[in-house]
Specification:
This protein has three helices and no strands. By secondary structure, the chain is mostly helical. The longest helix has 12 residues, at 30-41. It starts with 29 loop residues before the first helix and ends in a 6-residue tail after the last helix.
Amino acid sequence: MVGAFSYLYTVQTTPQIPHMALSASPRVPEDAQRAIRDALINAGNSRGGRQLLDHLRFQGFEPASPEIYEGYARLLQGVYGY
């Protein structure tokens, strides 16, 4: 993002925070969950997937784990239904 503004100078950088997570209901069969997860993670490998990423202005999706979001629940208390 910083590179998009030639007049902007970096003063400090911080670690990135995780983007929103996608989750599936336990009622969704595991094979469907796996197929959706694989399609999103590999979206850059197909024409339709690249169109999706372009539309969302995402570089791509990556697998997540609970550890990535560890500690953010406390930060979000009182926000977004926490």
